[in-house]
Structures
1.
Amino acid sequence: MTVLVIGEALVDVVRRAGREPEPHAGGSPFNVAVGLARLDVATELAAQVGPDAYGDLLCSHLAGSDVVLERLDPTPEHTSTAEATIAEDGGATYVFDLTWDPAALPDPAAFDAIHVGSLGTALEPGASLVAELVISADALGIPVSYDPNVRLAVERDPAVWQRVFAAIAPYASILKMSDEDAAVLFPGEAPADLVRRLAADRGIVAITCGGDGAHIAAGRHHASVPPADVRVVDTIGAGDSFMAAMLAWCATYDWPGADELDGTELTDLAMYASSAAAITCSRPGADPPRTRDLTP
């Protein structure tokens, strides 16, 4: 079983007060691919990576986690970056310099599941190709997962993100977003209410709420879980680790449909994903756990 992850791969240049900048491999789809592979799911990442030192960093990081990299043409002059400034509470704000203009994407029929998200679904010209692939995958009966991972620092217009969501979410059987994403996409709607409403139409849906835990729903079942107890170093990649763990759990159970899960199973899924996110929060940068880290 192989999952194809599509989207941006970049280097997070992390800045903390009083310290030298630290480069870390990152990008939401990149992090999901690494997180999946570390949880023993065969994973291929389709991304644009430049021929520079930062590109070498990304390739090395992927190889170390057994992710297969499909380097998309055209090759950018330099690898994309995101400057991440860490606040005292561990939260991160970003400034991006990136390229997303692939000439073509892999054939979805060669994979067992597809994951898309974030800037790879929102930035043209690549976003249109991603949307076409998602529609094709769904038509073939291939599970599609989607994390909007809204980045207003790159695309400032909420209406763009709302249009992207409306175009992709109907074809996704697994959907995850943060409460911050939800505030942009569905302003004024409480996460617990939103997750139930979306799940009525869109399979398995999860909304993470940071220190307030997470909500998850499928069909008529709903569960809420508290946050794991952890000392937060930073939150970079936490949502991506949650997404990767959701997918790994679903892969283990052969991609169950929403009507195949009850409240107990949903709670188990959310707890597993929350534990993965908590471990990532306890480490600097996007450093998702391996299977052994989540095994008692």
2.
Amino acid sequence: MRRTLFNEDHEAFRETVRSFADRVLRPNYPKYVEQRSIDREVWKEAGELGILGLEVPEEYGGSGAEDFRFNVVANEEFAKVSMGYASCLGIHADIVAPYLVKLTTEEQRRRWLPRFCTGELWTAIGMTEPSGGSDLAALKTVAVKDGSDWIINGGKTFITNGYSADLVIVAARTDPSKGSKGISLFAVEADMPGFERGRKLHKVGQPESDTAELFFSDVRVPAENMIGEEGKGFISMMKLLPQERIGSAVTNLAHATQVLEETLDYVKTREAFGQPIGKFQHNAFLLAELATKADVTRYYIDACLTNHLTGDMTPVDAAKAKWWSAEIQNQIIDACVQLHGGYGYMTEYHTAQAWTDARVTKIWAGSNEIMKMIISRDLGL
């Protein structure tokens, strides 16, 4: 079936992103894996190409595209190279951007967004805590008012871009008596005394994406660094999480289909028992199933994206897309490892790298179990 989501402008932008990925990201992948982070110059170049400010109005240095399909194009092309690239970019350009555009004051936008778009100001978001996981309402990081400032104490973990970020949006409890209605958001800047980063976490996959623990010990944050209204942090996160989840679905599927395409090439040339292994009925039927799963998933995700553009995508739609795409992604890539045989377990093969990279997608952005809870509640259960 012909894909109808994009127009000529999107495809022209795709060529820009693809060229950048082929020229900068692919050849340097081993280096970034070894150092477990991506060089800052990479994101500055991405900023020069207009990849980072897609959701930012032109007056603050962005492209003012107001069209999430451009984000989709960038995410797809990055995910084809590695999930870690898509993860780092997505946190900055898709997840943090709406907070800094929609919830900030004019002064805050002028202070942060121009450097956000150029890649000079790299960002992360601190939601997840060691004791909380997907239960954001139970976070323990606290912010206590001190004059016109706030004093933050606590910690976050599994924070993508956490080791390198210049600015972290931190969710903290400002009124313990109000539960989820007592959570607020703050912009913590890297040079604030008391803000410390732990080690770069050693992950099973996506080593090129820096992930860290963050610690806050009496970090004094001025009132002008509060993002949005006091006590509205949890509500803001719930409103913006659907975009994170549909973005996850996009990268999940792009990642899986790239591996599937590579595997199709492999089974047509790899021979066993006198013929290409793709000719064996079991393998042929398996690949037919995988291709069908990928296509059916793509058109559901594209339908969600179409609704997202008009403001009609619901949190339930996003939850379905997120958990299903993660399941299909892992099914496809696991099968591709099997089709590669022993070579599928060798790290020099993209399939092996993709296999380890993919497993976390059933956990992050809200675990698949949380997604099913959201869906079941919508069913009245």
